[in-house]
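EI: anyone free to look at a 136-residue chain?
SC: sure, send it
EI:
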Amino acid sequence: MRKSLLTALTLSAALSFVPAGLTLAAPITEAPMSTASYSPLYTESSWMTLNVPVAALGGTIPSDLVLSAAGLPDGTSITLVGVSQEGDQAVLTVSVQRTNTDNFINATSLIKLTSGDTTLTSFNVPVVGTAYTSGS
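SC: here you go
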């Protein structure tokens, strides 16, 4: 019994630890249309991809597809670099960049895909980045 209590307290303490420089996710104001889960996108990358069912885009990939990202710390962005189709999936190549590398990023971004004035789908994607300073 004593060992179980000690293990539970140690686990509880470990789970409650939050690094001082951690940037927490901003609240997301709209519920996503899609319930698909995505692996994290990493900052300072231009090779990450997101797969979205073409059906969620209306059955075809529109030529004016636009990606917008909300819920990220200031200076952090996700940009659509390219779109291709593999089977029934639209493969979106994205670039994830930030202007400040002094802080950790552990955020959830609300991604919206639009065509013209129409939101085709939206979903949440985790975005992470480690803190580092460039040689000083």
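EI: The longest strand covers residues 104-115.
SC: 👍
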